Amino acid sequence: MSTKYSLAAYARAAAFFTLYGTVKYLPPPLGDALRFAVLKLFVAEIRSWKIKDGVTIWFPEGVRIGRHVTINEGVFLDGFGGLSIGNHCRIAHGCSFISEDHVFDDPDTPIWQQGKRASPITLEDDVWCGCGVKVMRGVTIGRGSVIAAGSVVTRSIPPNSIAMGVPARVVRTRGTGGDRGPAA
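Now predict its structure.
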């Protein structure tokens, strides 16, 4: 997939990075409100204002954020392939959501010339991603799931699952064994 951008796309990106760059690191609560105002102009959909300082967003036109979502400091959101965050989600600091990667199948062609692959990432409602979680392209994390800190999610996770590890795997289902389980 070769990607070429129009002049209008470059102008929109320049406007976004300029405006968002002025509010990206402002402290809460004023910074949260100003980030929400700027993001409202550029993302596909945003219904929550709790976007903390230092959140980086690429391709905001592919990002959807539901109601009562908290996105903490230092999170990376990549909307190139599409990123949908459901209602009531909690995203701890340092998480990354990467909806694209490079094609590298042909060893005789430099990787940068082989284009990119993109697939949407979906967090259904009431998902909690612990500190430093990485979610890769094409993944859906089911409603009510918890992803433990430091996990790398490369495959979809069923609803109400607790997943951990590199790569992340389901270790149990919520509601089966009390509240004791791996810390997220």
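The chain is about 15% helix and 30% strand.
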